[in-house]
Specification:
This protein is an alpha+beta fold and 559 residues long. Helices cover 27% and strands 25% of the residues. Residues 329-553 form the NXPE C-terminal domain.
Length: 559
């Protein structure tokens, strides 16, 4: 076009020298800039995923945080303040283990009912918990991590409780009574307050205790280097793979002989165990890690039918998301949870696309649906079964279900970097609409990092959800939160229930007031009679799917 303009007889010759001079100057500046850029920065040549690769100065900060606006910074500070854990005892070189919380010396007691003698459906049960140390002396500080629930194993009934920390070694657990019959109280010490002190330190000083690897390849040359969002300063050059769309940071040490744009695979590297011998004592099974607290008297009450003039759960009471009765999850919120068998699942999902994003706990949903629906066939993508992405199609009923893992950090087997996608970017690629269901989770792989990293990841996803709902308001968006799990010493310092509990509070705060729905995996695992597991057992997954489908098809007539 420029050449044709210069040759056109309509252009007066008097303007050619001036235009040509300007053009030559601009071209020269551009050439000089390109040469400078090529000499100083290695440019990522692949378009997917959208990473920038460059060498960073060696004085890079230990953890990198996604840049956020002033408004988001104020919100972040407010969230951090709202989830601030009570002050816990300090761990010094001369601290005495016998002064730490001992669940075997601690006790709980059911507080007597006010007024009428009998406990009835609709009442709120209160339990006082007194924590003692290994000398059986009362603790004077709070911060212990306690889980409480009420169950009836014969009825396959259960409901979670809320624990209130009085900051002096005493706690109160409250529960709504929601079924007739026996209600057995369970109180578990997950971590003593002293262990929380250690976990706080680890997430600040040892945020790289889980590290990751990337494989680089060019021709016959292959190299592997360490990667992380928290990468310690080093004299070795660093490749910057910060996502240009979301701003999510990610870094790898540069290979010695290969360029940054030869990165082909991401994988879990390994684990570092930075506990001292004294700290290690705070994470011992059957001693102070996930140990039941015994009652000083009766540990159960008998619940009778409610009075006709009394509501089931009053507004002033603690109101959990729901409860189990005869193994079925019943909501205490506005949604009515239906029970879906195979035909009703097909009826609900006919003509719909279901996109699932997250970690292996979300992959369970994909596996459940694919197994439950006989005509929903998984399309073989020749991908490792542990990483994905996965896709299943029911051609007859026009049902499509997909699963993709979230972007780094993620502790997976080797996965192609082209398949590492951030949830926010994936949501931006969805058209949406009344026939689209989006469900995601993100929590289990971020348990070793400062909470700011998790908050900012959720803010990024929230922005994408807002964009999705603006262009397609009828899109259904469902979020699965984290759940309690079985803990060992190693699991505790890499994926603690304490951190997951904090993440759940953050998730609720970030998405508060939005047109999204929650599958409360935390309460659904805590209230169930089955043991806690990172990957909940099939009966719990079935109930989670029932909640998901009840959001999808609230008017469906099910069995």
């Amino acid at each position: 076009m420029i050449e044709q303009s210069f040759r056109s007889p309509k252009v007066k010759a008097i303007f050619l020298p001036k235009c040509g001079f300007i053009f030559l100057c601009l071209t020269g500046c551009l050439i000089i800039f390109i040469l400078w850029w090529m000499n100083n920065v290695e440019v990522q040549k692949t378009a997917d995923p959208p990473f920038i690769s460059q060498l960073l100065p060696i004085n890079m900060s230990f953890c990198a945080f996604r840049p956020i606006s002033l408004e988001e910074t104020l919100e972040e500070n407010k969230i951090l303040k709202s989830i601030a854990w009570p002050q816990t005892p300090t761990i010094t070189s001369d601290y005495t283990f016998k002064n730490t919380t001992d669940p075997w010396c601690s006790k709980f007691a059911i507080l007597p009912k006010k007024g009428e003698e009998k406990w009835r459906i609709g009442d709120q049960l209160e339990v006082r918990i007194v924590m003692n140390d290994f000398k059986c002396l009362p603790k004077t500080s709070g911060g212990d991590v306690l889980l409480a629930s009420v169950k009836n194993r014969h009825l396959k009934a259960g409901v979670s409780g809320k624990v209130v920390d009085h900051l002096n070694g005493n706690y109160t657990a409250v529960f709504p009574l929601v079924w007739e019959g026996k209600a057995e109280i369970e109180v578990i010490l997950v971590h003593p307050g002293e262990a929380v002190t250690v976990l706080k330190r680890l997430n600040g000083e040892n945020a790289d205790r889980v590290y990751f690897n990337s494989t680089f390849r060019s021709g016959s040359v292959t190299e592997t280097t360490v990667c992380n969002v928290c990468l310690r300063p080093t004299t070795q050059p660093v490749c910057n793979y910060t996502d240009i769309r979301t701003g999510e940071p990610w870094f790898c040490l540069k290979p010695k002989s290969l360029s940054c744009n030869t990165r082909i695979e991401h994988s879990k590297g390994g684990y570092l165990h930075p506990l001292t011998n004294q700290e290690n004592k705070l994470f011992k099974k059957k001693i102070n890690l996930r140990v039941p607290v015994q009652s000083s008297g009766s540990s159960s009450v008998t619940v009778y039918q409610q009075n006709k003039d009394k509501p089931t759960v009053t507004s002033s009471m603690f109101r959990p998301s729901g409860f189990y009765y005869k193994g079925v999850w019943k909501s205490l919120g506005t949604i009515q949870v239906h029970q879906f068998d195979t035909p009703s699942i097909v009826q609900c999902l006919r003509g719909k696309v279901v996109h699932l994003y997250g970690d292996s706990t979300m992959r369970q949903w994909f596996e459940y649906l694919t197994k439950e629906l006989p005509d929903l066939k998984e399309f073989t993508l020749h991908i490792d079964k542990g990483t994905g992405p996965f896709m299943s199609l029911d051609y007859k009923n026009n049902i499509l279900v997909t699963y993709r893992c979230h972007g780094p950090p993620i502790r997976f087997k080797p996965i192609s970097v082209s398949e590492l996608r951030y949830i926010a970017n994936e949501l931006d690629n969805i058209k949406g609409g009344s026939n689209t269901v989006v469900a995601f989770t993100i929590w289990a792989h971020l348990g070793t990092f400062p909470m700011k990293i998790y908050i900012r990841r959720l803010m990024s996803i929230r922005s994408a959800v807002l964009r999705l709902l603006l262009r397609a308001p009828d899109t259904l968006v469902v979020i699965r939160n984290g759940n309690p799990q079985a803990l060992s010493t190693s699991i505790s310092i890499f994926n603690s229930d304490w951190y997951s509990l904090q993440c759940n509070k953050v998730l609720r705060a970030v998405f508060k007031g939005m047109n999204v729905h929650l599958v409360d995996a935390w309460e659904m695992v805590l209230a169930h009679q089955l043991p806690h597991n990172l990957h909940p057992e099939p009966p719990i997954i079935k109930n989670m799917i029932n909640v998901l489908l009840s959001y999808t098809c609230p008017q469906t007539q099910t069995k």
